[in-house]
Design brief:
Layout lengths: L2 H18 L6 E3 L1 H7 L2 H8 L4 H9 L4 E7 L4 H17 L4 E7 L21 E6 L2 E7 L6 H9 L2
Parallel strand pairs: 2-3
Antiparallel strand pairs: 1-3, 2-4, 4-5
Helix pairs in contact: 3-5, 4-6
């Protein structure tokens, strides 16, 4: 086998091991476990730069709200948006914002058991609730940004 062919095969094997070696997390999760088992997500958190004016407005909110996030650790949109949300939470640093994370499997036919009867069509889905009532959703990708979409939903 030529040196180029051998190098190509080794790159394929290492790449496959990196992708398939990661754990698919499902069910109720906490941020710490997500970041521990997917350390590459930490780089995404660090790299995200939220809008400073939106962060200041979120800090000024006086109404508690909850964000329930359905996501897949295998999903690139989840990796981008959930980590953006992590950064927003870090910067706002408010006890009025709570979050829960529900990991779903890649196999679509296995997901419904994780949805708890909620109509989830795309991953990730962020469900924002105030006083137990749904105010709105961010589905797959935000219209503007995670932080601005949160503000827009809460202003309804």
């Amino acid at each position: 086998m030529s040196r180029k062919a051998l190098t190509f095969v080794l790159v394929l094997i290492v790449g496959a091991a990196a992708v398939f070696g990661q754990t698919e997390l499902t069910g109720p999760l906490v941020r710490e476990r997500i970041l521990k088992e997917h350390p590459d997500w930490q780089e995404v958190v660090a790299a995200y730069t939220p809008s400073a004016p939106a962060i200041e407005k979120l800090k000024a909110l006086s109404v508690p709200f909850h964000v329930e996030i359905f996501f897949g650790t295998w999903c690139s949109d989840s990796k981008a948006q959930v980590n953006a949300f992590f950064k927003v939470l870090d910067m706002v640093d408010s006890p009025l914002i709570t979050a829960s994370y529900i990991g779903v499997p890649k196999k679509k036919e296995a997901r419904s058991q994780f949805y708890g009867g909620k109509d989830i069509q795309k991953i990730p889905t962020f469900i924002i609730t105030v006083d137990g009532m749904e105010k709105g959703r961010i589905i797959e990708t935000p219209l503007k940004s995670i932080e601005q979409d949160l503000l827009d939903i809460l202003a309804r």
